Amino acid sequence: MASLFAVQPPTPSSILKTPGTNNFLKTNPTLHHFKKRSFSLNSVLSTETDPNIPQTVQRFWQWLKDEGVVSSKTPVKPGIVTEGLGLVATRNIGRNEVVLEVPKRFWINQDAAAASEIGSICSGLKPFIAVALFLLSEKFKGEESKWKYYIDVLPESTNSTIYWSEEELLEIQGTQLLSTTLGVKEFVQNEFLKVEEEVILPNKQLFPFPLTLDDFFWAFGILRSRAFSRLRNQNLVVIPFADLINHSAKVTTEDHAHEVRGPAGLFSWDYLFQLRSPLSLKAGEQVFIQYDIKKSNADMALDYGFIESNSDRDAFTLTLEISESDEFFADKLDIAESNGLEETAYFDIKYGQPLPTAMLPYLRLVALGGSDAFLLESIFRNSIWGFLELPISRANEELICKVVRSACKSALSGYPTTIEEDEKLKEEGNLSPRLEIAVGIRIGEKKVLQQIDDIFRERESELDLLEYYQERRLKDLGLVGEQGEIIFWEPK
Ligand SMILES: C[S@@+](CC[C@H](N)C(=O)[O-])C[C@H]1O[C@@H](n2cnc3c(N)ncnc32)[C@H](O)[C@@H]1O
Predict the structure, then answer these.
(1) Residue among 32, 36, 295, 303 whose CB has most ligand 1 atoms within 8 A, to mutate
(2) Per UniProt, where does S-adenosyl-L-methionine bind (predicted)?
(3) What is the mean pLDDT of residues 110-118?
(4) Range list of β-strands (E), 114-252
(5) Spatial distance between the Cα atoms of 234 and 346, rounded to a whole number of angstroms
(6) How far apart are CA 437 and CA 317, in angstroms?
(7) Which fold has domain 55-289?
(8) What is the pLDDT of residues 86-105, one digit of tens each?
(9) Under 8 Å between Cβ of 390 and 472
(10) What's the average model confidence in pLDDT over 115-123?
C-alpha cells in the first residue's frame, strides 16, 4: 500500500524538552469495522454459495464479473478472513503469478474525481481532498452511483487510532503515537473546515446532502488504509477489488503492484493495475502483500489500524534542534545545512538497529561550545563534518550523553506503565484489537528509548578511553609517539 500522501501534522503538543540549558533535544513524536458485517473467520467457500459472505460482497463480486474485471480464470475471490475481507486463492498460485487485473476505468484517483460530476471544483484541491469528496459524493448518491457495489463493501472505520475514543486514546498516553494521532486529527479537521467553507457550502448543488466531519474522517481513513501509491504517475489511487488484499509480515518484498497495458474489455485496451502474488499459495490460502516495509508500528497503527508483533517495526523519533539562542546559531545552521540537515532534525531510531549515521555528528554540532568553538570558524567549514563524525572533546561527548540520557529518562517517565507491566498484559492475552495495538506501541517505544539510553550509558562509561579531536590532530601531525606520549621535540 505504501505511504499514501504526506501529512504534516502540526507540531505536537507533548514535546519534551530536556531540563536545563541544553534544551536542544526533544523526544518529539514522529509522525473496521464493516457495516455491521457479521461473519465467521477463515471462510473460503464459494462466494456465491457461502452464507457467511455478506450479500454486499456477493453483489460486488457479481458486479466485477458483469463488468468483465473478473472471469472464471481469475485465481482469487473475496473471502472472510481474520483481517476482515481478504482475497483467497481458488487454485494453486505460483510465486509472481498475476492474481488480478483492474482496468483504469475502475481506478479511483484525482482523474476520476475530475471526470465526475464534482469535477468542476476539483482543480486546485489537494489530491486526497478531491478523492475524498469524490468518494463521499458517490456514497451519498446511493443507488444512483456507478460505484455503489464497491462503496457497499467498504468498512465504516478501521482500528486506526484516528477513530479511537478518548478513553481508548488514554491507553496510548505518553506515546509519540498519541501526539501524531492528535496532530493528524487536527490536520484533517482543519482541512475539512477549509473545504467546507470554500468548496462544499458554496456548491450546494454538487453536495446536496449534509457532509459532516465524521464523513470526512471516514473518507480520509479509507484513503489512508486502502490507497496504492507506488504506481508510476499515481500517488494516490484506490483500486476496487485489489484493495481487498491484506498485509503479512511473511512477505518481505514490495514490488507486487504494476501498471501494464492490456485487454480491458471485449474490444478495448487500457492501462491495467496488475497484482502478482509475492508467495506461492495452495488453493484456499489467502493472498497477502507487504504494505510498506519501512513503516514503523506507529505508522501502521495510524494508517491501517494494526501492528506487527515482532520488534523490527518498533521505533522512536528523536528531534534535535539548534537553538536560536545559541551564540553560534548561524555557524551551526550553516554547517547543518551544508550537510543536508536543518535547524530541526528528526532521527528515526529503530529497535535493534544502529543509530542513524548523521545523529552523532549533529548532536556534537549542537552541543559544540567552550574551547571547542574554534572548530566553527569558517576555515574549518569544509572539514568540520568529518571532525564531528568522531568525538570532539571529552566535554562535548559527555554533554551529548547527559542530554540524550536525560531526554530518554524524561520520556520514559511519561508512560503510565512499565515495560514489565505491559509485557504481563500482553502475555495474559484476551486484549481487544485496539488495546493490543496500544500495549504493543507502549512496549515498543519504551524498548527503543531504553536502547538509546543503553547506547549513551555505555558511551558515558568510555569517555576516558575515547580519542578526541586534539589527539587525532597531534597524531596526524606526527606529534604522538607509539605509546601515546606527546613528542615535544624531535630527538637528536
Ligand atoms: C487494504 S484493506 C484490506 C481489506 C480489508 N481487510 C477489508 O476487510 O476490506 C486494509 C485493511 O485491512 C485490515 N488488515 C490488512 N492486513 C491486516 C493484518 N495483517 N492484520 C490486521 N488487519 C489487517 C486493516 O483493517 C487494514 O486497514
Answers:
(1) 32
(2) 83-85, 246-247
(3) 96
(4) 246-247
(5) 28
(6) 18
(7) set domain protein methyltransferase, domain 1 (3.90.1410)
(8) 999 999 999 999 999 999 99
(9) yes
(10) 95
Which residues face 345 on adjacent strands?
320
| Residue tagged 501534522 (cell numbers) | 9
ipTM over 0.90: yes
Q: What is the 3-state secondary structure (H, E, C) of 352-403?
A: CCCCCCCHHHHHHHHHCCHHHHHHHCHHHCCCHHHHHCCCCCHHHHHHHHHH
Residue 256 annotated as part of some ligand binding site: no
Name the amino acid, one letter, at 85: L
Lookup: cell for 283 = 488453493
Take residue 158 and report the three cell numbers written for it: 478501521
Out of 32, 83, 252, 308, mutate this one to test ligand 1's pocket (max ligand atoms within 8 Å of CB): namely 83
CATH 3.90.1420.10 fits domain 309-476: yes
99's grid cell? 492474481
Q: Cell numbers at residue 13, please?
A: 503538543
Same fold, 55-289 and 309-476: no
Q: How far apart are CA 315 and CA 171, in angstroms?
A: 18
Nearest to 305 by CA among 80, 84, 133: 84
Residue where the block lists cell 505504501: 2
Region 147-153 average pLDDT: 98
- Tally of CA atoms within 13 A in the half-sphere of 418 that contains its CB: 3
Cα separation, 355 vs 411, in Å, equals 18
Q: Among 340, 323, 426, which Cα is nearest to 385's?
A: 340
**476: which 3 cell numbers?**
596526524
Measuring CA to CA, which residue among 446, 402, 404, 403 is closest to residue 421?
A: 446
Q: Domain locations in the chain?
A: 55-289, 309-476
| Ligand 1 midpoint to CA 16 (Å) | 34
**How many C-beta neighbours within 10 Å does residue 9 have?**
19
